[in-house]
Amino acid sequence: MVQFEVILEALGQIGPAQIIICLLWSYYNFLGGFNGLATVFIAYTPDVRCNVPPLDNSTVYPNLTEVDILNFTTPYDSASDEYNGCYRYNYDLNTCDGTLSCVNQSASTINCDNGYHYDRSIFTETVVTEFDLICGDKYLNTVATSMYYVGFLIGSIIFGNFADAYGRKTCSLLTCVGVLGCMFGLAFSRSVALYIVLRTALAMFDYGCIGTFVYIMEIVGKKWRTFFGILYQMFFVFGYMIMSGIAYNWRDWHEITFVTALLGVPFLFLALIIPESPRWLFIKKKDKQGIKVSKLLARINKVELTDEIWERAKEADKQISTDTSNATSVKYTSLDLFKTKASTLVTLNVMFNWLVNSLVYYGVSLNAGALAGDLFVNNTLNGVMEIASYIICIIFMDRIGRRILLCANMLVAGLGLLASVIVNVYADDNESLITLGVVFSFIGKFGISGSFATIYNFTTELFPTVLRSNAVGAGSFAARIGGIVAPYVISLQDYVSWLPNTIFAILGIAAGILSLFFPETNGVPMMETPQEAEEFYKNWKKHKQVSELDLSREMKSYDNSACEEMSTKI
Description:
- By secondary structure, this protein is mainly α.
- About 70% of the residues lie in helices and about 5% in strands.
- It has helices spanning about 5-10, 15-35, 40, 65-75, 125-130, 140-160, 160-165, 170-185, 190-205, 210-220, 225-250, 255-275, 280-285, 285-300, 305-325, 340-365, 375-400, 400-425, 430-460, 465-490, 500-515, 530-570; strands spanning about 50, 75, 80-85, 85-90, 110, 115-120.
- The chain has a two-stranded antiparallel sheet. Strands 2-3 form a two-stranded antiparallel sheet.
């Protein structure tokens, strides 16, 4: 077998071949952005009232405005300071003959008995308006959104090891076909049950894009993995930002879904021309195919893989196989994360951070429609805040460390959302305060985006090689729970408007404080065994002091060499 790390060194940490492959695989994450936050638009809930014929018939009552109709037919809820569109005054509409003598605002109220009238000035049709997911059936909209994240959980079980067993390319192609099939199916679905089933299946297949992320991490050099890992996440953001433009031009949810599905079709053809991951091929002992792919990458990068390099790669693999034969004989499971007190505390803290990050991230993102101002602009600005946060992470993650960066981002998120709640409570109709509340909400999005980007990298460094996948799996499981719960927390605003963001803020601040109890991994070599990890958890401050001087030198070298290498090879 061939040790690909030696081949990668010869190919270059980064080159035209890796850049092309990374960008092509990252294109897949556009679909993740389209689908992940699609409900901001396709499940938008407009203003609603009861159908009240003939009072809302402009031929019979040509002088009545929408405000007049609401006033004459719909009870006003002083607690929420708005009309309750689920009810109307219980007087006989059949007696209304062009005059207002039939109107009785002192009458009792009843549920809408003639269907609903929706404000279609923003969207002509959404999932909510087509299936009447309001009033008594409003919970179905929350369930549908929550089931999307249940789909992620199912996908993690089905596709968790699929890419390792059958290949990165195979996994990505298969799941992309599933994603596109579900998206086109959604565009033509005509029942709420089918909508929920297809959204759940869509998320399940979407999880399979993990193969594209793993491929990217395998094809670039160590010092470029943070950059390209975060760049990959940026394509998710670009996806939901582009979704704003799509939803602005196509105002029917069927059309929105169909257009986004069409934009995903080119990926299938691009994926067919991308070769399989050479690292995976070598691991699976498919050396002939791995050599062929490696030579292709070398031609694109304009380097030569000499016989000497291939011999070194084979010798390196023999040495590694000998050194790791004893370590790999022991089988580890997720239960080993909880074998010692130190490991248990780190694992529980990691899981709590993943849960809070997912809960707050999706809570803030999915609730963009509740912010004051234009829905399309707010969703785009959310994306701008997320990209800005990623850039900050790229700049500071290796400078100030993971622990401080994670804590700072979580506190920014929590305090930003808490400030938004306080300002909005006292805003009333003050436009300046309303705008300030929106600004604080964007600051919250900035913070939670940065912390979510940080916790993933941090988790991979906190655990030894033999337990790393189990640890990421445990964190991912906790994150799925956060995503499932987020829509239900958002729904609490129907009863207490300030409650969801207050919950998000408190949890964000708590997670930020608890993140200070993590050991710092910046500049510390990857741990291989649980024994190494245990020793590190207890004495990480000593490790930190030893590595600080070397890290400072490495960062200076990295700043110069990375920029030079990128500029010369693009």
